[in-house]
Amino acid sequence: MTDHDPVDVLANIESALSSPKVDNLMLLQYLALRQQTLNFNPDRAHVSFFATVNNDSVELEHVLSRMGNVYSVLSPFSAIPDYVANQGVISLILNKESGTLDGT
After folding, report:
1. E strand or H helix at 89, and its extent?
2. Quick check: 71 and 53 in contact, CB under 8 A?
3. Alpha carbons 2 and 26: distance in angstroms, whole number
4. What is d(CA 67, CA 91) in angstroms, rounded to the nearest whole number?
5. Which end of the chain has fewer beta carbons closer than 10 Å to its terminal beta carbon, N or C?
6. Is the separation of the CB atoms in 81 and 49 below 8 Å?
7. What is the DSSP string of 59-76?
């Protein structure tokens, strides 16, 4: 995890996942994973989602593939606030086929 207070980091992630840009299922999955995982670490817990962007010049990290303005992403939960803050990102939709990776 980063040098920030872990409680603040988790609150920041939860706030970002509550954004209108983000599919509600991503927040539910995050909350369930936090409850089920002892010593939850948002830098190690990953989520798979589709990010829709508004133009070709948007740069995203953790990209698996791209088709037009839709990116397939496998990212740690700790990076979600950066996606939400990116003005070029329109939406984040959970990839229900792959889910998450354990966050321990």
Report:
1. strand 89-94
2. yes
3. 22
4. 15
5. C
6. no
7. --SSEEEEETTEEEEEEE
**Using CA atoms, how far apart are residues 28 and 102, in angstroms rounded to an integer?**
15
Single pTM value for the model: 0.86
CA distance 100 to 96: 9
End-to-end CA distance of the chain: 12
Residue 62 CB-density burial (10 A; 0-12 exposed, 13-18 middle, 19+ buried): middle
Residue-by-residue pLDDT tens, the chain, 104 positions: 445 677 799 999 999 999 999 999 999 999 999 999 888 999 999 999 999 999 988 999 999 999 999 999 999 999 999 999 999 999 999 998 765 555 54
